[in-house]
Amino acid sequence: MADSNGSHAPRSPFRVWSAFVWSLQGLRACWQLESSFRLEVYLFVVLAPLGLWLGADGVERAILVGSLLGVLVVEVLNSAVEAVVDRWGAEHHELAGRAKDMGSAAVFLADMNVLLCWGLVLGPRFL
To answer: Which cell locations does it reside in (predicted)?
Structure first.
């Protein structure tokens, strides 16, 4: 973060801690308010250990587990977009609908990425 004269001040441990606390608050809000996020976390809890076990080396494990983590990241961002759009009102607006649809499409693409990664890494082993 730049100060008023444009220089970058080092982050103090307090600022880093504050950022960590805000991140936890965001995760808590997603968990409490978004059933789709909870579902993705449940899938992560089941599939991540499986990916760690089935991956032949560090790269494969990173691909298998990282693709799952990517879904959680996109799900949090989609929830943030939806919250901002809903903040501005319940009336239908073309741009608001488009933003929500695009967020949903991002989650879908992240899900497809998981299938692609898992299929390419594990498919040859089982075929």
So the answer is: Cell inner membrane
